[in-house]
Protein: GTPase Era
Amino acid sequence: MGFKSGVVSLVGKPNVGKSTLINRLVGEKIAIVSDKVQTTRNRIGGIVTTEKGQVIFYDTPGIHKPLHRLGQYLVKIAVGALNGSDLLLIMVDYEDGIKASDHLVAKHVNSSKIPAFLAINKIDVALTKASLNEFTKKALALFENVEKHFLISAEKGDGVDELLEEIIQRLPEGPMLYPEDVITDRSSRFMAAEIIREKVLMLTKEEIPHSTGVYIHDFQDKETGVLFIRADIVVERQSQKPIIIGKQGAMIKKIGILARQDMEYIFDSKVFLELFVKVRKKWREKDNFIQDFTNLREDLE
Structure:
């Protein structure tokens, strides 16, 4: 009796810190993080279980003005995630300030009529209390359905425990929705693709990160106890292929080494990872390629 459970969707503009906060709350890395815009492409569930309750936190793509077909899908997923949520956790970025994209987020959040908490992120960089208070007032004025607001640093953990406690209190009474040792609703195959993409984001610059997709061909547990993974890194232009491969294969080797290290930690298994680079022209404008190379098929069902 008194156990709480429910769904909380994180919403905000791109690069506001949603994935960093999810990882902090869960205590493990389940969502990839980078300084590149539109890093998150899928609705990823991070599951937090305490003695008082269980929260399914959904990390969502940043709400933005889409520039291509893939961008339209991302906004559709982010806005669609609002439906079925018991509570929204809106995130704004103190360091970046209130921008046009925050107003776009407010438009969708306000029309949803779903109860919301507001998290002011990156408070660790605030120079004065007065400037932080002024920013908080501006942020609160944007959103109509905010019940409480919190000052946090997702990266450093400031204010995160209090935020989690208040979220659990706000949720309805209900049973556990997942076993207590489960921390994400995503498959290992999905996680493998995201880890590979994260390493591409981390190691490459300019237009490469945004035009990269990953397709897992094989994901097999061998009798030897080794997890065999074969994957394609997909780019849009022929000129991008040698960048991913690198001089004498140095870049793709580095991507593979770093991805395999993360996979072995997450899957608790030896991993044999085989990577290839494929060119698919304008894949971000083609529905079948978008769903294959971004794992969006299940998000849109």
Summary: The longest strand covers residues 226-235.
